[in-house]
Specification:
The protein contains 8 helices and no strands. It is globular and about 40 Å long. It is mainly alpha-helical. The termini are far apart.
Length: 140
């Protein structure tokens, strides 16, 4: 079952609190654009069933995956960063008191992506948005 983001984060919204600190960084990029980067529809095929326990929202896993690759972190270390690092939390849309998830979810997420036939969809979307943003800046 496709997990959905709660309407309100657990605790203060770190995207708003840390906006100035993250300005111009990959954390700020993900925090400001994650909804457009990773809409629920992008991952609907990975969770076709409407029964069962909801997954961690794929948007959170996608943001964490981007940061994990950029920072070359192991699954366990990426989850620790999502649990403790304010920039990681803000980038993933987590509130100050939100907890992370079990590191094995990265394995399940990557497996679902691989089986879907579009394993690179996360980084394809990031490239598309960066290209669009660059083109728009060039027009000004």
């Amino acid at each position: 079952m496709l997990g959905r983001r709660p309407k309100e984060p657990v605790g203060p919204d770190l995207r708003l609190l840390c906006r100035e600190l993250m300005s111009g960084s990959v954390f700020g990029f993900l925090a400001e654009r994650r909804n457009g980067l990773f809409p629920e529809e992008l991952f609907a095929d990975l969770h076709p069933s409407r029964i069962g326990r909801p997954s961690v929202p794929p948007r959170v896993l996608a943001c964490a995956t981007v940061l994990q690759v950029l920072e070359k972190r192991a699954d366990h270390d990426a989850v620790a960063a999502l649990r403790c690092d304010l920039c990681w939390k803000a980038a993933g849309g987590r509130g100050l008191y939100d907890t992370a998830f079990d590191p094995s979810l990265f394995i399940c997420f990557r497996r679902r992506l691989a089986l879907s036939g579009d394993r690179d969809r996360i980084f394809t979307r990031v490239r598309e948005i960066i290209t669009q943003t660059s083109v728009l800046k060039g027009r000004r």
